[in-house]
Amino acid sequence: MLDRVVAPGEGGTRIDVLIAGWLGETRGRAQQRVTDNDVTVDGRPVAKSHRVSAGERVAVATPAPPAASDPPPPVPVRYDDEHIAVVAKPAGLVVHSGAGTAPGTTLVDGLTAMGVPLAAGDDPDRPGIVHRLDRGTSGVLVVAKTAAARQALAETFQRHDVDRRYWAVVDGVPDPASATIDAPIARSARNRKKFTVAPEGRRAVTHYDVTEGFGDAAVVQVRLETGRTHQVRVHMAATGHPVSGDAVYGAAPSVARRLGLTRPALHAAHLGFDHPVTGRRIEIDEPLPDDLAGALARLRRDTPP
Asked: Sign of the C-alpha dihedral, residues 230, 235, 238, 243?
């Protein structure tokens, strides 16, 4: 157990930030400790937003987690210079740490282990990160190495001046074959880990085109105009054609089994943007990983001409 008195210079600090600094762990892990009531201030549990006062006694009931024995495998780098790097995130890899994420297991951890410098930001758990991909989504992602690049990239994403195209397999064949989905997205009130189309949500715009139809499934190209959390997954599910393999948003288990999918069939296939420092146009295409290439091969092989 850690049992320590808050020093005068530490007064006013959020409890999660204080614990993270004392234990040398991520803020997300410290927040989880507070949520689990493993942290007390003068013998009482507190909220993670609690700001400590000098002289208060802070106790942490559980020891710091053991360091991960091995860092994540090296992350493939598709473009690299002194300001930015474009990487290919594999499916199953979390972009940055948070509550419930084991230390040393994220894309940020992998890049750090590779010696890639990442620009600090407001959140110490998210150095270099200006956009994300879901754990189950593979594909291209840009990270910032310098503060100037981070700021400029953040502004570029806020202006929606980024060409983001996804490859996906969806259940069924959407009709019409090409459409724009303009529907606001909000966090689900029933399940806080999910999102849904809701009038009170933030505006979200998705363009899709069916490129191949196979009866019970179709290959679509999706272009994002905005970048909301789970946007492709939520919008395609709202059309009645969820991303295949995405059980969270109602995909059919039968299609996932037929295609050998163990995760949503969603891949960030293209990223295009103006370099945040030089202005040079960067266009990166990422081929399908083996599991999605295999699913596509099964679709083409098993569907009658």
From this structure: negative
CA angle, corner 56, sides to 54 and 60, nearest 5? Answer: 125
Tell me: the pLDDT tens digits for 251-292? Answer: 999 999 999 999 999 999 999 999 999 999 999 999 999 999
Residues of the chain with CATH 3.10.290.10: 2-60
pLDDT at 62: 62
CATH, range 160-305: 3.30.2350.10
| Residue type at 216 in one-letter notation | D
Which residues are registered as beta bridge partners of 168?
A: 220, 266
**CA-based radius of gyration for the chain:** 22
| C-alpha to C-alpha distance for 43 and 33, rounded to whole angstroms | 15
Q: Is the separation of the CB atoms in 103 and 65 below 8 Å?
A: yes
In the CATH hierarchy, which fold is given to the domain comprising 2-60?
3.10.290
- Cα–Cα distances in Å, from 50 out to 39, 41, 65? 11, 9, 22
Q: Among the options 125, 134, 171, 291, which is catalytic?
A: 134
Residue 63: the pLDDT is 55
Cis, bond preceding 176 (omega within 30 deg of 0): yes
CA angle at 10 for the pair 9 and 16, rounded to the nearest 5°: 165
- Residue ranges for the chain with pLDDT beneath 70: 62-71, 98-104, 304-305
pLDDT score at 291 = 95
> Which residues make Cβ contacts (< 8 Å) with residue 274, sequence separation at least 6?
156, 161, 280, 281, 282
The residue written with tokens 């990983």 in the block is 289
134 is catalytic: yes
Closest CA relative to residue 58, chosen from 34, 87, 35: 34
Predicted pLDDT at 23: 83
Domain boundaries 66-159, CATH class: alpha beta
Tell which residue, 135, 137, 117, has the closest CA to residue 127: 117
